[in-house]
UniProtKB/TrEMBL annotation:
SMART domains: HOX. InterPro entries: HD (IPR001356), Homeodomain-like_sf (IPR009057), SIX1_SD (IPR031701). GO terms for cellular component: nucleus; transcription regulator complex. It comes from the Eukaryota. Pfam families: SIX1_SD (PF16878). Residues 145-207 form the Homeobox domain. This is Homeobox protein SIX4. Keywords: DNA-binding, Homeobox, Nucleus. One of its GO terms (molecular function) is RNA polymerase II cis-regulatory region sequence-specific DNA binding. It comes from Clonorchis sinensis.
Length: 231
């Protein structure tokens, strides 16, 4: 596996007796949440670790939750140091749980964008990024295989659609229950509800405008040519 700033980052259990894998994972999550990549890199490099299965190209199944958090931190440190090979290697061959996947999916695309920009020597446009996403689909290690349309999975969209057909104005408690059933936050569920109402209202207004325009056209035609009224 490629070294990161001269330090070989492999996967395994922390050999320090003072810091367990769980404690190391908590520190990594906090530093990632603060977006303090420099301190995160210094912290990872100070750890005596021995995780040999990253050095192979085989898929070794899903690591423990603590190992996943540490591996996610390794990915972001590697990305910050332009070590894109390491990032893609981890994301392709290590299975991550659903909780980590949204962030790692963004990292997957950002890594391919950065690789291509460095190779071409210029910034990518929206069309270039779209083509890269089509060319490099998400691996199953960070994706459950379900298609996403406008940031919502098909199964979630179906649940929301069926629910709002029965109850257009859910109260806060019902929104909380719906969010728990779909895995969304209450804010996401509320935004989806507002978007659905707006789209429906816009479609109704659009059809009304079309009807009014046709009526006006017929009125103008009848005024200019009275005989056409009887056609």
């Amino acid at each position: 596996m490629a070294p990161l700033n001269g330090v070989k980052l492999e996967v395994g259990q922390c050999l320090s007796r003072e810091l367990t894998d769980t404690k190391v994972a908590c520190i990594c999550e906090v530093l990632l949440r603060e977006n303090n990549i420099l301190k995160l890199e210094q912290f990872l490099q100070s750890l005596p670790v021995d995780w040999p299965f990253l050095s192979t190209s085989e898929n070794h199944g899903e690591p423990s939750p603590a190992e996943q958090s540490i591996l996610k931190a390794v990915c972001f440190v590697a990305f910050e140091n332009s070590n894109y090979v390491t990032v893609l290697h981890i994301l392709r061959h290590i299975q991550f749980s659903t909780w980590h996947q949204p962030l790692l999916q963004q990292l997957w695309y950002q890594t391919h964008y950065a690789q291509t920009e460095r190779r071409r020597g210029k910034k990518l446009g929206a069309v270039d990024k779209y083509r890269l996403r089509r060319r490099h689909p998400l691996p199953r290690t960070i994706w459950d295989g379900e298609e996403t349309v406008y940031c919502f999975k098909q199964s979630v969209r179906h649940i929301l659609q069926q629910y709002f057909l029965e109850n257009k104005y859910p109260n806060p408690e019902e929104k909380f229950t719906l969010a728990k059933a779909t895995g969304l936050s209450c804010t996401q569920a509320r935004i989806r509800q507002c978007t659905k109402k707006y789209t429906k209202r816009k479609n109704i207004q659009g059809s009304q405008v079309t009807t009014i325009a046709l009526m006006r056209r017929k009125a103008v035609r009848a005024y200019s040519d009275p005989a056409s009224t009887y056609e």
